[in-house]
Amino acid sequence: MTEQPPAGDQEQAAPRPAAHRGPPVEIAEETLSPSGERTAGALRLALRDMMVASGGRDDVPWARVDREHLARAASACASSPNLGMDMLHCLAAVDYEERIELNYVLFSLARGHKAMLKVDVPPDDARVDSLTGIWEAAGWHERETRDLFGVEFAGNPDLSPLLLYEGFEGHPGLRSFPLHDYEEW
Amino acid sequence: MRTQAAYETVDMMLNMGPQHPATHGVFRMVLTVDGERVVDVTPHIGYLHRGSEKLAEHESYGQVVTLFDRLDYVSNLNNELIFCRAAERLMGVEPPERAQYIRTILAELNRLASHLLFIGTYAIDLGGMTPIMYGFRERERIQNLFESVTGARMMHNFIRIGGVKEDAPPGFAPRVRALLDDAERGVAEIDRLLTFNEVFLARTRGVGVIDAPSALSCGLTGPSLRASGVAYDVRKDYPYEVYPYLSYKVPVGENGDCWDRYYMRVLECYESVSMVRQCLDQMEDGPVMAQMRRIARPPKGEVYVHGENPRGDIGVFLVSDGTDKPYRVKVRPPSFCNLVALRPMMRGAYIADAVAILGSLDIVLGEVDR
Question: Which residue of B53, B230, B291 is in closest CB contact with A22?
Answer without folding.
Answer: B291
